[in-house]
Amino acid sequence: MAFGIAGLRLWWLGRLIRAGGPAPGRTKGAWRRLGAELVEVVGQRKLLRRWQSGIPHALTFWGFAVLLFTIIETYGDVLYQQRFAIPGIGHAAALGFVEDLFSLLVLAAIGVFTVIRLVDSPSRRDRKSRFYGSHIGVAWLALLFIALVVITLLGYRAAQVNTGDFPYGAWAFASHGLAHLLQPLGHGANAALETALLLANVAIIMAFLVLLVYSKHLHILLAPVNIAFSRRPRALGPLQAPQNPTGAGRIEQLSWKQLLDLATCTECGRCQAVCPAWNSDEPLSPKLLVMSLRDHLFASAPLLIGEGRPPAGANGDRPRTAPLVPDVIEPDVVWSCTTCGACVEQCPVDIEHVDTIVDLRRQLVDEGRMQAGLQEALQKITRQGNSFGKSERARARWTRDLGFPVKDARKEPVRYLWFVGDFASFDERVQQLSRTLAQLLHDAGVDFGLLYDSERNAGNDVRRAGEEGLFEMLVEQNMTALGQASFEAIFTTDPHSFNTLRNEYPDHGLDKRVLHYSQLLDELLASSAIAVDSLGARVTYHDPCYLARYNRLTKAPRQVLAALGCDLVEMPRHGVNTFCCGAGGGRIWMEDSAAGERPSESRIREAAALGVDLFVVACPKDFVMYSDAVKTTGHDDRLRVVDLVQLVEQAARRPTPGARASTTPPVSRSSAGPAPDP
Amino acid sequence: MSNDVLVLAEHQGGALCTVTFELAGRARELADAWGGQVQVALLGASNLAGQLGSADVVFTAEHPALADYNPEAYERVLLSIVHARTPRLVLLSTATAGLDLSAALSVGWDAPVVSSVVGLSAEGEGALATAQIYGGKLLAEVELAGSRAVCAVIAGSFPAAAGRRDRPPAVEAIDAAAVLDGLRTSVTGVVTAEAGDVDITAADVLVSVGRGIGSRDDLEVAEELADALGAPLAGSRPLTDQGWLPKSRQVGKSGVTVKPKLYLALGISGAPEHVEGMRDAELVIACNTDAKAPIFDVAHYGTTVDLFDLVPELVKRLKP
Amino acid sequence: MKVIVPVKQVPDVVEDLELTADGTDVDREFLKFVVNEFDEQALEEALCIKESSGAAVVVVGLDEPDVDQALYGALAKGADRAVKLVGTGEGWLPGHRRSAILAAWLAGEGYDLVLTGVQAADDLDGQLATLLGARLGLPHISVVVRVDAEGSAARVRQELAGGTVVEEAVALPAVIGVQAARQAPRYVSISRIRQAQQSGAVEEVPAATADGATGFRLRRLLAPERTSHAEMLRGGPGEVAERIVELIRAKGLIPG
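^ inputs. structure came back:
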């Protein structure tokens, strides 16, 4: 009967998920998907990143894979014959040992989970707990069930030892050990115990099966499925044009993969724990967003697939499901997201939160429902092609103060096309960095040019703010401009532009190599095209989300720092686990309403605790955000925000000494003393 | 046809607006050059006629429809006056009445009109008007050679002192009843600015913010400075439109005109509409990252340091 | 209720404005044109009227650079019809002539309300709302921040100086110069504008050969001379702050 209930539920779930829209490209690359299953499911890769909970989880997972043998044996015992042996394996001593070993390991894991849940309990830690908002009761129940499965298993095996029904020898050490304790009860009691525990074990497994399909523990079944259909090579990646042109206004307008995401969520809260919005007391928690959508999906089932679907209205329309925003999700939740991708990166079952959030935004943008700041930025980008609302003819004005002309790639061929981006072109603070980079490249003899007034905002953040039509328009304009230019490769200042040019423009015909300026600097230093003296500064480096997490670009900036002789002290959150500055996904254009500490301020405190002198960035938005944050947190006397290019400029040996005034204030030396001369 | 210059007196809350004296002063110069009279049309406020000593004659009209400003009633009375008196030039301001009436006079009286005038001088028999266009980015020089013309003048373009003269002018009451028959516009209510809020016109020091403030949160930065200076916070139209500041704090054309001893302009670009409301401040210090911002043309001191860098430094030094 | 919204394209003042050789107009060749910001407010208010009490909104523009984008944008926002009056020539068009062309078209159109921007950046010979109202012999009200249509009359809020607002009742038809709509102009997504473009719904109507001279001679345009300029304080934030505090102290305005 339990199988029947579970089967019906799974069949129902399957139909519900198929009520979603198409999700193209989710079945391509079978081998790669199989590989993902091995690494993510069998290997528990993402779970093991947090070893405290990852190891017990892996043990439980592997344990149950092993205990599957005992379950088959048990069912064989009950349904078929005593001392049932799995054909082909039999009662090998090794199997008995492994079964017993993992029984104990699973019990130990349950003990660790209990401690974790007690220590990180929402009733103690409120929003800081990653279980805040999760179903707590069911989680405890599941732990209890798992413990009972193992306890009854070991119990009846021990009783079997005493009744002589146990097929395994001394290698099944735990069963034999427990048998010693039970022996004094006598043969009759042990026989009764054997029967009772065996039946209890079967009953508990059945009950657990039912609990599983009706709770978050469904992930045991759906996680491998969801991972099989996740984006490859990583769940975090380029966005796609929406299947429904106006995004997702109602639950059935999400794709079946997005619905599968919802059903798969384990409520583990790893996403919530790393979310910059949640950590600054914004209303968004990726976990709660997914849970709300999932509850709504299940509640909407009668409208989507129900037999007793309400009859069609007079005009043939079916009653529709509720609008997702604001009925299911508050607008502020949708707009709090920085699209930093930390949630997707953490999620052990490859839920793609960012895609769903962007689809919700697309619907809001289509209806014109957005904050004034965002609206203004989008209008400026529509009109002037940049978020500053400046004349496009002013885009390359920052080059005027350079002592040399910068090539116009539309008029003469260049090796590198520099896609400068809005901040590096128009923000006065960042323009200075652009001039520094231009000067360095010029001195190093790099052949580069610009698109001048033909360059437009690349559209990465426009797209993530949900304005797909404007993104497409910008792509068309930029592709036209790029088509007029002759170049071998592109490099960008902005990691966001880098991301979309590298990963999303190829769909629109871009077939050139795209670099970030940190990579270019790395190459120039490695080839000694830029000769430097050691700086010996003690620094930390902030990985931009769109370099490190989205594009796995973490080495080049570190190699630059190493080449400059900097002593790099890593922040706890670095590399692919970097923490967002709060400006991504269009957030830089919106009001921040957070009651809590801003992400950029939290980040500065993290860096300040390291006792470094310099906070190195490689992103114009980071430069702006953190230059502000060191002031607002009162760390500006201890910690200075510098761009990678400023450090290179500082260390570079001048082509003609004294000919060029430094545009960068001197770097404070590390307290370790003067740097050794190379 | 005559060589007279007619000024529409604007009044609000029982007092003449400053711009009326500015216009009367310039009207005097022009009338003297042409050998004509200065005439002022004063509708619905005959009691204020005595203050218009710089005029040769004040035409007053009283009627229930003129008790409050009613654009249609004003238009009809003014048209009847210009048709009867045929002045060479009619001057209005670019405030609401000027926007309602100047172009209407042009159509109804068949006279050219120049909008947003900032300069006006006699040129032989005619006049040369200088007007702002394209948001003040350019000026237009316009020749008014004919026998009649209308100019809408931006407040603050001429000195008000020249229009204040302490002598009783001749007053001529006009019977407006006939032209005010069958009005299609009626005033049903007047809502004055939110009461209970600070009166920024009375403050010695004003900290004023503009578009450079990116978000409501950022206002806190400016508020802190205002507190340190014991000054109220004022702002330009974009901020009151956003609802970040109450309407009563808006400086400029559709807000209030202020003359504090110190006007600290933070992130204000200096659009003509704003400048109109603060150009007479004794000391204007402006902070804007755009070195080309027009606010620097009216400010006495300026800086292009980012306001978010500057203000904390100021607060540090001003806090006891 | 039928509401007509005349919209106008003006040079984007974000751009540097250069003059033609004879100095009487801006060089329009490389200029960017945007819809007059006050006309956007007028359109928003018209759409609000449509939503609150029902109305047909017709937006009308002259054949000016990028006017199609403005008209399609209006359709995408919810205007019922868009009309382009063609054959009006190039270069700066006096308000008098614009109002004459529109008045001739309006005569055959039938309407209850005309809502347009209170002014535009290139107004030199009067504002369209006033010119049009006077030419049509209709009541007209400028600097309006809200319009509610009620049968054969409209209730409007007109802003005077100092934040004073008068409420007026005006018999229809009437012409209103809108300063600001009751809410910020709505955003219309690019994909909606593209949809509107694909439906191709802008009607082209030949403009009447109306005359309408300014009656004055435009001698020249010129960049304003900077009669005075602020003394710029140089240095970092700290130094500048120090100077400013000195200036305030010198005026005796430091409290305490």
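The helical segments of chain C are 37-53, 67-77, 95-107, 128-136, 190-199, 237-250. Chain C has six helices and 13 strands.
thumbs up if we can close this ticket
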